[in-house]
Design a protein that fits this description.
5 strands; about 20% strand; globular; Transcription Regulator spoIIAA; 4 helices; about 110 residues
Length: about 110
Protein backbone atom coordinates (compact mmCIF):
# COMPACT_ATOMS: atom_id res chain seq x y z
CA UNK A 1 0.00 0.00 0.00
CA UNK A 2 1.26 3.44 -0.84
CA UNK A 3 0.45 6.40 1.38
CA UNK A 4 1.90 9.86 0.96
CA UNK A 5 2.37 12.05 3.99
CA UNK A 6 2.90 15.81 4.07
CA UNK A 7 2.41 18.77 6.37
CA UNK A 8 -0.02 21.65 5.97
CA UNK A 9 1.01 23.95 8.76
CA UNK A 10 0.94 21.82 11.89
CA UNK A 11 -1.45 19.26 10.41
CA UNK A 12 -0.37 15.88 9.03
CA UNK A 13 -2.06 15.02 5.73
CA UNK A 14 -2.22 11.33 4.86
CA UNK A 15 -3.06 10.48 1.25
CA UNK A 16 -3.64 6.78 0.64
CA UNK A 17 -3.20 5.84 -3.01
CA UNK A 18 -5.39 3.12 -4.48
CA UNK A 19 -8.39 1.21 -3.26
CA UNK A 20 -8.50 0.67 0.51
CA UNK A 21 -9.34 -3.03 0.54
CA UNK A 22 -8.11 -6.13 2.35
CA UNK A 23 -4.46 -5.89 3.49
CA UNK A 24 -4.06 -2.35 2.18
CA UNK A 25 -6.99 -1.23 4.32
CA UNK A 26 -5.50 -2.93 7.38
CA UNK A 27 -2.06 -1.37 6.79
CA UNK A 28 -3.52 2.10 6.35
CA UNK A 29 -5.69 1.73 9.44
CA UNK A 30 -2.69 0.67 11.53
CA UNK A 31 -0.67 3.65 10.27
CA UNK A 32 -3.54 6.03 10.96
CA UNK A 33 -4.16 4.74 14.50
CA UNK A 34 -0.46 4.96 15.29
CA UNK A 35 -0.42 8.58 14.17
CA UNK A 36 -3.60 9.44 16.10
CA UNK A 37 -2.19 8.09 19.34
CA UNK A 38 0.45 10.83 19.40
CA UNK A 39 0.17 13.80 21.75
CA UNK A 40 -1.08 16.03 18.91
CA UNK A 41 -3.43 14.07 16.63
CA UNK A 42 -3.95 16.75 14.01
CA UNK A 43 -4.56 14.60 10.95
CA UNK A 44 -6.49 15.01 7.72
CA UNK A 45 -7.04 12.11 5.35
CA UNK A 46 -7.02 13.21 1.73
CA UNK A 47 -9.15 10.69 -0.16
CA UNK A 48 -8.86 11.91 -3.77
CA UNK A 49 -6.69 8.91 -4.75
CA UNK A 50 -9.03 6.30 -3.19
CA UNK A 51 -11.49 5.01 -5.80
CA UNK A 52 -13.11 2.51 -3.43
CA UNK A 53 -13.03 1.27 0.16
CA UNK A 54 -14.28 -1.95 1.69
CA UNK A 55 -15.63 -2.96 5.10
CA UNK A 56 -12.12 -3.38 6.54
CA UNK A 57 -11.32 0.21 5.60
CA UNK A 58 -14.60 1.38 7.12
CA UNK A 59 -13.81 -0.50 10.34
CA UNK A 60 -10.38 1.13 10.46
CA UNK A 61 -11.79 4.60 9.89
CA UNK A 62 -14.42 4.00 12.59
CA UNK A 63 -11.71 2.87 15.03
CA UNK A 64 -9.83 6.09 14.26
CA UNK A 65 -12.99 8.16 14.73
CA UNK A 66 -13.59 6.42 18.09
CA UNK A 67 -9.99 7.09 19.14
CA UNK A 68 -10.46 10.79 18.41
CA UNK A 69 -13.92 10.93 19.99
CA UNK A 70 -12.32 9.98 23.31
CA UNK A 71 -10.48 13.32 23.05
CA UNK A 72 -13.58 15.21 21.85
CA UNK A 73 -12.12 15.41 18.31
CA UNK A 74 -13.36 14.30 14.88
CA UNK A 75 -11.76 12.42 11.99
CA UNK A 76 -11.47 14.80 9.04
CA UNK A 77 -11.69 13.55 5.46
CA UNK A 78 -10.95 15.77 2.46
CA UNK A 79 -11.60 15.41 -1.25
CA UNK A 80 -13.61 12.20 -0.89
CA UNK A 81 -14.46 10.59 -4.22
CA UNK A 82 -18.09 10.17 -5.22
CA UNK A 83 -17.95 6.38 -4.92
CA UNK A 84 -16.52 6.58 -1.40
CA UNK A 85 -19.13 9.19 -0.41
CA UNK A 86 -21.81 6.76 -1.56
CA UNK A 87 -20.27 4.01 0.59
CA UNK A 88 -20.37 6.31 3.63
CA UNK A 89 -23.95 7.28 2.84
CA UNK A 90 -25.23 3.76 2.14
CA UNK A 91 -23.72 2.45 5.37
CA UNK A 92 -25.16 5.40 7.34
CA UNK A 93 -21.67 6.23 8.63
CA UNK A 94 -21.30 9.69 7.09
CA UNK A 95 -22.27 11.44 10.33
CA UNK A 96 -19.28 9.87 12.12
CA UNK A 97 -16.80 11.94 10.07
CA UNK A 98 -16.20 15.56 9.03
CA UNK A 99 -15.99 16.06 5.26
CA UNK A 100 -14.16 18.90 3.51
CA UNK A 101 -13.84 19.89 -0.14
CA UNK A 102 -10.14 20.68 0.21
CA UNK A 103 -7.21 19.66 2.40
CA UNK A 104 -6.58 23.31 3.22
CA UNK A 105 -10.16 23.77 4.52
CA UNK A 106 -9.78 20.65 6.66
CA UNK A 107 -6.44 21.86 8.04
CA UNK A 108 -7.90 25.30 8.83
CA UNK A 109 -10.70 23.65 10.79
CA UNK A 110 -8.20 22.86 13.55
CA UNK A 111 -7.87 26.57 14.33
Amino acid sequence: MKCEQRQVGTVDVLTPIGALVDEDAEQFSAKLLERLRSSSPRVVISMQEVPYLDSKALEGLLAAADELAERALHLKLARVTQTCREVFSLTSLAERFRFFESVEDAARSFI
